[in-house]
Amino acid sequence: MRLVALYADAWNAFGPPDSWSHKNDVLDEWCEQVGRPGEIERTVSINDPAELDQLDDFLEAGVQHVILGRGDPFNLDPVQRLLDAARG
Q1: Long-range contacts of range 30-33, CB-CB < 8 Å, 24 or more positions apart?
Q2: How many of the other CB atoms lie within 10 Å of CB of 17?
Q3: Half-sphere exposure of residue 53, counting CA atoms within 13 Å on the CB side?
Q4: Number of Cβ atoms within 10 Å of the Cβ of 51
Q5: Which of the residues 5, 17, 66, 86 could staple to 57 if both were Cys, CB 3.0 to 4.6 A apart?
Q6: pLDDT by residue (tens digit) across 14-37?
């Protein structure tokens, strides 16, 4: 995490929200130590559409951007759910 704190503009990790939150806290500590608090964008990759039910938990944990992975056969229903949540 030290190298992320030193050089990254964005950081991406996976859930669940409590695990993501812990990693985010560790990154915050490193960012403080290297003099870059609040400079790194925070993202989460969601590959399981069921994790969209935890979207509010991710946002409360500090997620700024959501990356929603979609594989073949490209069911776009989860994308619509994410769009609806963003507009809501």
Answers
A1: 30/1, 30/2, 30/4, 30/5, 31/5, 33/2, 33/5
A2: 20
A3: 3
A4: 20
A5: 17
A6: 999 999 999 999 999 999 999 999
Query: Is pTM beyond 0.90 here?
Result: no
Tell me the CA distances in angstroms from 51 to 4, 34, 47, 63, 85, one per residue in order: 25, 33, 8, 14, 13
3-class SS of residue 16: coil
Strand order from edge to edge, sheet including 10-14: 10-14, 41-46, 65-68
DSSP code at position 9: S
User: Strand 10-14 relative to strand 41-46: parallel, antiparallel, unpaired?
Assistant: parallel
